[in-house]
Amino acid sequence: MSTGNSSASGQRSDLSRIKTWWRTLGGDRFAVLPPPTRSRYTQSDGHEDAAEMFAVQGISTDTSFAYWHWQSQDAFDRTGELTGELYLHWGGDHATVTAGLGEGPDGYRIVNGGPQGAFRLDKVTAVDADGLPDPRDEAGVRQFLARIGAPRPRAVPPVELTAAEERWLHDRLAGPVELAGAEGFVTALEDRAALTEEETTRLLALWQQEYAGSPSSWRGWRPLLSALLRHGHPAAWEAADLIGPASSDHLGDHPCERSEHALRARALAGHLAAIPGWFRVHRTLHQPDPVLTARDLCGELTARDTPEGSTARLFTVLLGAVTDDRRACTPTGGGGRSDRAAADALQRLATVRFATDDRLPHALRVAAAQAAHDRVAHVREDAARWGPAYTNLTGATAADALAAADRYEAARDDLLSGTGPDLTGYEGALGDLYHRYRTLSPADVRWLRARVADPSTAVQGIAFCLELLYAHGEATGDDLEALLPRWKKELTKQYRTTYTEWRHPLVTLTCLALDLDHPVAADLLAWWAKPKPLWKNPVRLLTHLGAPDEAKAAELWEFIVAGEHDTGHLMTWVLLRARLDSTHPLLVAERLIGTPGVRDYVLHRVLIGVADPAQPLWHYAIDPRSHSWWRRAQEVADDPRLSEAARAIGLKAARDHCVLRYPDQVRPVLTEGEVAAARAWAEARAGRTAAD
């Protein structure tokens, strides 16, 4: 059995051996970054570290490189033992990186994730004639469980086990069981409904004993709850209640009056996680038609004033149900790219159709209209591309699809008037549609102001809405007054905006108060001047954009050239300077090219981010998946006001964008026409030299 602490026994740890090997790498056109610190937390951080290392060491910027970041470092435990795959990220030419990394250090192997994936480094382990590891080999057991898919995504069917594999798993649960290490075995068996009633009962007793105070702390509760429900164990319902809303999917897999009651109560109490299970149970027990099921549930949700994301979540569930039903009737076979394209075409058409489906309540049609905003053009392309085969894929003729698109476009403005995105969900989803708000309609302004004034709007929603109003010059004293009762208790909390296009809402509110010369500005500045909380110190200077003056500009500039970590400071200085000089911020940023103390990779991001001063992009790096960043890069590349050096920066950013390299990664998904137009644009500029 592995001790999990080789350094304590006088051996070098995995981390030490891997670092020793890592230091031997590098050569012609390939470099490796030093092992990470906490400051290199994401892939974007890794690319910024590479740019800085290249600049400091005089390495050509077209050199390929590899690195791992702090999140990857979690593959090691505190003693340096490798307890999971170490993800090695990279930039540049994939073939060069592959050759540069080689097969890995002795005793380890590297799995190549392909041109769009990471490399994965892990230990070399041994298996027997049945492909099974020694139960005492922790790394071998982990790799075996990963191979058979434990855990696996819910939508992915489990691979079939051999008799030897299933027997090996049951053997791990025979006799005394260490619950903390049994999760993978329990998951692998119950994924195949193979956990026996006797095993389930023994595991339940252990779970109740060892995790009495926090049952969800054991990650194996999910397969165990599934087994309890499957076997009809009387403790199943008590266990589901103890876990709470997180158990909703499992209850949805076991439809009965009791599960329906629990799921309905959770959904009406505002727990979005309960909606999919409630939908499945209601459909099974009462109404097989998914559209009518959605109608029934929507009526209950809207009557209870549930959170704004409830209807959107219900629509997503409805959409998945109807597309799954259709695919079940017309299977396309191999599960490859053609299957994925067919499924996408089916889902796009269903979305567009639902926006004008009178069987659905208005709230669901609005949710459909929002989802269809970026899909209707795809429906038109699908109808033209698939031709006669379109009917086999979707059950509709190409003419039907085009008519549905026409109906949607005729109804869209009325449906979407006074609406907006779900402000409570994943912030990346808000970033994906940020380009829609480059200009604001009067209806947009009314909606944004209403959300700012709504006491139920949380910090993320306030940040998004207030930033848009402020940047477009639409924020007013009324917006400020609406937030005054909330700023001390709510807006002074930490909210990370490093990966968003908007700033912390208290930064934006302070800027607005300063611009309006509102009496609360003094109180806000006094709060910013305090030493705590510590989270605010890196962003305090961003408030200088409000009521700018030369003293604020000088303080910001001193911070920038001192080489401190930039979290929007150069962007703030450029926008501030543009306001003071009454000039376009692009021209301000352009003048900084080659300035000592200004890091190139920060300046390049700022140059593109300020291309439209009515909606600056505050993300700390150029987002290669973003419509907004792609369009700004194009505009900088083609702006006749700019020097060739500045335009070359825009051109390089555009050439590195996923629109040209990996268009399927852009969100929202691009149409084929948009991809073709982007490539034509790049080809027309093929003779121009991008910045190094």
Give a quick account of the main beta sheet: strands, pairing sense, barrel closure: 5 strands, mixed
What is the structural class?
A: mainly alpha
Could you list the spans in which at least 5 consecutive residues all have pLDDT below 50? 1-10
The main sheet orders its strands as 1-2-3-5-4
Radius of gyration: 28 Å
**Overall mean confidence score, pLDDT:** 93
Number of helices: 34
Structural shape: globular
User: Which range does the strand content fall in?
Assistant: under 5%
Features:
692 residues; mainly alpha; 3% strand; globular; disordered N terminus
Describe this structure in words.
The structure is a single chain. The chain is mainly alpha-helical and 692 residues long. The protein is 53% helix and 3% strand. The chain is built from 34 helices and five strands. Strands 1-2-3-5-4 form a five-stranded mixed beta sheet, with helices on both faces. Helix 15 packs across helix 16. The longest helix has 21 residues.
